[in-house]
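Lab notebook, bench 4. Continuing the backlog of folding jobs that were queued last week. Each job is logged with the same field layout so the records can be merged later without manual cleanup. Today's entry covers Corrinoid adenosyltransferase, a 193-residue chain. Filled in by technician R.K.

JOB TYPE: sequence-to-structure
TARGET: Corrinoid adenosyltransferase
LENGTH: 193
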Amino acid sequence: MRIYTGTGDKGMTRLVGGVAVAKDSDRVESYGTIDELNSWIGYAATFMGKSYEDEYKEIVTIQNFLFDIGTELATPETNLRGPVISEEAISWIESRIDYYTDAAPDINRFILPGGCRLAALFHVARTIARRAERRIIRLNTTVMVSPIVITFVNRLSDYFYAIARYFNFREDVNDVFYERSAEVFHKIKEKGL
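JOB STATUS: finished
OUTPUT FIELD FOLLOWS
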């Protein structure tokens, strides 16, 4: 089977079932951003190493969920055969969020994205998940999107935040707390920098 079809040369692509839509449609933006997120976490997972085998398996599970979600978003309602993920997926990801939140030290301030490499990579995943959620919400204004998909993608950004903090904790790297820029600038000036 050839990968290229020529359909995209005119700015169009086909959804599941064969309907042609513009490549910049809300539907394509939605599943395209889910694909971007899936690719990013696949990249991030390459840095996980042997000490994170269980977390790696968890990320692969999330990648499978994301593939299912992308398929649902690429399928017009007339071709859908029911939701591709269940309420159990939401319960599962919430349990993982709770686990990572409990494992890292309590905080009551905003943190800056970063820290160790894994934390930084998963903070980027968090922002891509938020963008995917915005795209899906926009799509939901014109077509029906499964509420389970919307909730799951919303939980994903919380998951990536929690696991990023967990990686910093495991790697013995402190989260950096947000400070108002005026305060930071004042400290820099005091040091003569």
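OBSERVATION: The longest strand covers residues 12-14.
SIGNED: R.K.
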